[in-house]
Amino acid sequence: MILASMISILLVAGLLCWLLDRWSSVVAKWIALLALVIDFGIISSICLDFKDSASGTAMWINYQATWIPTFGIGFHLAMDGLSAVLVLLTFFLGILSVLCSWNEIREKTGFYFFNLLWTLAGITGVFVAMDLFLFYFFWEVMLVPMYFLIAMWGDTNRRYASFKFFIFTQAGGLLMLLAILALYFIHGQQSGSYSFDYFNLLNTSMESSTARWIMMGFLIAFVVKLPMVPFHNWLPDAHSEAPTAGSLILAGLLLKTGAYGIIRFVLPLFPQASAEIAWWAMLFGVIGIIYGAMLAYAQTDIKRLIAYTSVSHMGFVLLGIFAFRELAMQGVVMQMLTHGISTGALFVMAGMLKERLHTRDINQMGGLWTYLPAMGGAAMLFTMASLGLPALGNFIAEFLILLGAFPVNIPHTVIATLGLVFSALYSLRMMQKVFLGKPANTEPIKDLNIRELITMGALTVSIVALGLFPQPVLDMVRSVVQKLVVAGN
């Protein structure tokens, strides 16, 4: 029941924000913040008690209710260690997205927070839904409000970016729906009982050619969201045109739903078919690492630059998943968390700069550390995290991925390590252009205020804590990772 309650709190709070905005926009902001703080408190208490048994059996929190029994559709929510850490990340970044929207959004505030909370509710549902019909329902729920966030509160080219985002993700989602229906009917014909339940469908046996086609329906939907080259085209436009909170949620959470989908559905449901395409999937991951880094270096728009870094960093996720090694899989989970925090922080920083300078062009910046020492220090920390400096979370993630993938495919892993070199180039270039060098602006600029200091402080503590103490996260996902490795081998 607690899993349904967390989602319900967001949905109800979103409606209240929309309805009460006509009386006070401030009330809408506080309702959104309070709802996310409550949910964050709930998931934090769950994570503190979340432990895998000594035998390696995963701990699950389940909630099941009858929904549409005639068609085998149930309201089945469940959470294991993997879901728990991602839901924790969702509510943590959700709180920060409300804080960074506090003064940025001045029109239709209630409707804005309605869309923000419903997006987060959809993402939470994706991470805990164990009925494939319900999973698809939440997959769609998170897309529509995100479309409105970009289309209504985005930048100059927001309509183009929002349409592009919706078409790419919706096309992938429809392929996944066809794959879900195919799996549903095949399982029903075999067992005589039609069901969308994940745990029932795990036992479905198929011919190898059939499994490959159905798996591709799932996989394409997930790699579009990841995103994998060449399905990444929607990402730079969506990131650069979205409001600050939209970019934070896109980078920190929506991309992770793609990685989660591969780990939760593609590998367990289609182990043999997944193993057959592993070499090619790792190759596309490596292409994404190098291609994304090169495009990031070429950008002058700071938000597009950060967006292309996501393409590069998510390539490591694809490389690690299809290595089918425990170390690499643990690195993938760490990468999902640390990328969400470090890249999310850079997008928040880009929003702060846009608010102060009214431009995203890094060629019109320079020497800002003189006027913004606190922001410059925070930017340096997250730039170092992005390029994989030891003692910060991203280093742990990428090191584990490369260490796990090396015995599986040496050429791919060696090429992927060049991504670390390229990440240093684009990260230091961004830092040099924005905060160092000759000041391009002579007018005084305000440094971080209290609200911004709280936001950046929370992100700083998180990325350093994950870099110094990654073991609690690795322990929570160990049993999930071990099952995936066994299935892939």
Overview of this protein structure:
The structure is a single chain. With 489 residues, the chain is mainly alpha-helical. The protein is 74% helix and 3% strand. The protein is built from 19 helices and 2 strands. It has a two-stranded antiparallel sheet. Strand 1 (61-68) and strand 2 (73-79) form a beta hairpin. Helix 16 runs parallel beside helix 18. The chain is globular. The two termini are 36 Å apart.
The percentage of residues in β strands lies in under 5%
Please identify the structural class as seen in this structure: mainly alpha
Report the principal-axis shape. Answer: globular
Strand order of the largest sheet: 1-2
Short synopsis of the structure:
74% of the residues lie in helices and 3% in strands. The chain has 489 residues and is mainly α.
What are its keywords?
3% strand; 2 strands; 489 residues; mainly alpha; two-stranded antiparallel sheet; globular
Topology:
Elements: H1 2-20, H2 25-48, E1 61-68, E2 73-79, H3 81-100, H4 109-128, H5 132-153, H6 158-191, H7 198-201, H8 208-225, H9 234-241, H10 244-269, H11 271-276, H12 278-298, H13 302-321, H14 326-357, H15 373-386, H16 393-405, H17 410-435, H18 450-468, H19 471-488
Antiparallel strand pairs: 1-2
Helix pairs in contact: 1-2, 1-4, 2-3, 2-4, 3-4, 3-10, 3-14, 3-19, 4-5, 4-10, 5-6, 6-8, 6-9, 8-10, 9-10, 9-13, 10-13, 10-14, 12-13, 12-17, 13-14, 13-16, 13-17, 14-15, 14-16, 14-18, 14-19, 15-17, 15-18, 16-18
